[in-house]
């Protein structure tokens, strides 16, 4: 807005503008903008400036706003020193534990029922060759084990997982440190998300289980007639001049009589934050995909059908003009924008925001109706992890039956110490089992101990700090091999005499 010095009532006001100058400037700006077009009238521009004044985007030179109407005259106005935008608190991200997937606890497991009428298996000692084929590192005898599987995921847990992960993805897509002031998790229903993901037809439109929540049949018929014009008159009604305009008015009357916009009042701030992402198509599309999953299924179905209708009407070259003064595209956006996005507070700039957002949603309605592939993949990986089977060895420190009632935070040093202890204890048991195995030949035992030393040097040196300790526990090669070696060496020395004796004989 061009600002300059103005005089009024023998006083000078710097950085100000008149009402007429503001209307001239903004009117020309809206006419050149592709979201509005040359059909914007001067009166509509004046109405928008009056909303600016009520929302304290501008004020008169005496600081008044919200009580008087903006005048298309020489009355002086200025911009306030402080921005009217809502300032969200910048504090570190604090997640509510109730809205995040909890960690897997051991009581999520249950033992598989054992087969009856079967004799218990006896532990068999493997031969040396078979042991070498099965193991690369000596681990000793295996303890008795049980096959464990986790409990089935309930529908309530499934809803909670989809809710928490969708909210987390939405926060990341919006680029916010926290959703405080933008979205209240209590207003998000996990069942709605699951329904919007899975209960869809081939084209991605939500299918409602309760037909009473769907749109009336006559509204659906009118939308089909207009979307497939001139081949959409299934009822074979007589077509008269202006018939298509009456059909559009019928559809518009239904949506304009809804109690709240399709995007709901609770999600208004979420979609307002998406407006800043519209220049980046991919980022805005992902944010809209996640946000629309939060809608109640009836609202999502109405929104999908309405956006598809608007897009088809705008691209239908066979459809006669629906208004004598306004282009079809501009008419559709202006007519249905208040039905899509709106705030419960009349002070917000509903019309301007809704027009810009609905135009983008209409142009990319096919992509917005899809479920983000990244979100679906992460949820499926989490669910597969929950259903994965486990093996429990008897006598191990981890007991599946005794589950902790709560988790206590510990220091990093204690965590590292527990990690080392928890890893070395089983290895020490394996090493002792290998040393105590009397049926294993000494040659194979030394070979496996050498492999163990190479793989786990810390555990090996803690058990055998010196060579004497190793010699005491592991028998070395016997010295009985020396006499045979001496015998063969003496025999080799007497071989020339044997040949001479045989010659004389």
What can you see in these coordinates?
By secondary structure, this protein is an alpha+beta fold. Among the domains are: 4-78, Arc Repressor Mutant, subunit A; 156-377, Rho GTPase activation protein (Phosphatidylinositol 3-kinase, Chain A, Orthogonal Bundle); 446-497, no CATH class. It has 20 helices and 7 strands. It has helices spanning 19-32, 42-54, 128-134, 155-174, 190-198, 217-227, 243-256, 268-274, 281-293, 297-315, 328-340, 350-363, 365-368, 373-386, 412-436, 442-455, 457-463, 467-473, 482-493, 495-504, and strands spanning 4-8, 11-18, 59-60, 76-78, 109-111, 145-150, 390-393. The strands form 2 sheets. A 4-stranded antiparallel beta sheet has the order 1-2-4-3. Strand 1 and strand 2 form a beta hairpin. It is elongated and about 110 Å long. Pfam families: DEP (PF00610), RhoGAP (PF00620). InterPro entries: DEP_dom, Rho_GTPase_activation_prot, RhoGAP_dom, WH-like_DNA-bd_sf, WH_DNA-bd_sf. It comes from Salarias fasciatus (Jewelled blenny). This is Rho-GAP domain-containing protein. Residues 177-369 form the Rho-GAP domain.
Question: What does this entry show, briefly?
Answer:
The chain is an alpha+beta fold. Helix content is 49%, strand content 6%.
């Amino acid at each position: 807005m061009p600002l300059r010095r103005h005089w009024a009532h023998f006083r000078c006001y710097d950085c100000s503008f008149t009402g007429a100058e503001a209307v001239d400037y903004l009117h020309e700006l809206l006419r050149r903008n592709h979201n509005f077009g040359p059909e914007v009238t001067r009166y509509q521009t004046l109405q928008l400036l009056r909303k600016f004044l009520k929302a304290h985007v501008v004020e008169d030179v005496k600081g008044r706003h919200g009580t008087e109407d903006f005048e298309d005259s020489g009355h002086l106005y200025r911009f306030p020193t402080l921005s009217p935008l809502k300032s969200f608190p910048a504090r570190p991200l604090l997640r509510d534990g109730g809205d995040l997937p909890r960690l897997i606890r051991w009581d999520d497991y249950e033992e598989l029922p054992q087969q009856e009428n079967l004799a218990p298996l006896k532990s068999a000692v493997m031969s040396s060759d078979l042991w070498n084929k099965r193991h690369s590192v000596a681990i000793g005898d295996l303890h008795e084990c049980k096959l464990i599987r986790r409990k089935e995921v309930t529908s309530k847990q499934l809803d909670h997982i989809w809710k928490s992960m969708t909210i987390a993805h939405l926060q990341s897509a919006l680029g916010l440190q926290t959703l405080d002031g933008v979205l209240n998790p209590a207003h998000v229903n996990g069942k709605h998300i699951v329904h919007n993901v899975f209960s869809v037809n081939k084209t991605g439109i939500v299918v409602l289980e309760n037909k009473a929540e769907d749109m009336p049949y006559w509204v659906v018929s009118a939308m089909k007639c207009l979307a497939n014009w001139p081949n959409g008159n299934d009822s074979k009604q007589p077509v008269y001049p202006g018939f298509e305009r009456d059909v559009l008015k019928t559809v518009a009357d239904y949506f304009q009589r809804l109690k709240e916009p399709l995007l709901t009042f609770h999600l208004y701030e979420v979609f307002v934050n998406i407006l800043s992402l519209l220049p980046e198509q991919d980022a805005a599309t992902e944010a809209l995909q996640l946000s629309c999953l939060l809608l109640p299924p009836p609202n999502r179905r109405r929104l999908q059908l309405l956006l598809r209708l608007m897009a088809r009407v705008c691209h239908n070259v066979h459809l006669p003009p629906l208004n004598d003064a306004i282009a079809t595209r501009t008419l559709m956006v202006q007519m249905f924008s208040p039905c899509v996005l709106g705030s419960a507070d009349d002070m917000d700039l509903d019309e301007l925001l809704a027009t810009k957002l609905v135009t983008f949603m209409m142009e990319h309605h096919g992509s917005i109706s899809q479920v983000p592939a990244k979100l679906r993949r992460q949820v499926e990986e989490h669910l597969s992890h929950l259903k994965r089977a486990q093996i429990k060895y008897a006598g191990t420190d981890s007991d599946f039956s005794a589950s902790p009632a709560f988790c206590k935070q510990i220091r990093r040093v204690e965590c590292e110490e527990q990690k080392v202890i928890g890893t070395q204890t089983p290895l020490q048991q394996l090493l002792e089992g290998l040393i105590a195995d009397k049926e294993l030949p000494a040659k194979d035992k030394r070979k496996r101990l050498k492999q163990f030393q190479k793989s786990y040097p810390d555990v090996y040196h803690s058990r055998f700090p010196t060579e004497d300790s190793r010699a005491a526990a592991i028998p070395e090669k016997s010295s009985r091999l020396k006499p045979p070696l001496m015998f063969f060496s003496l025999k080799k020395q007497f071989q020339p005499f044997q040949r001479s004796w045989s010659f004389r004989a």
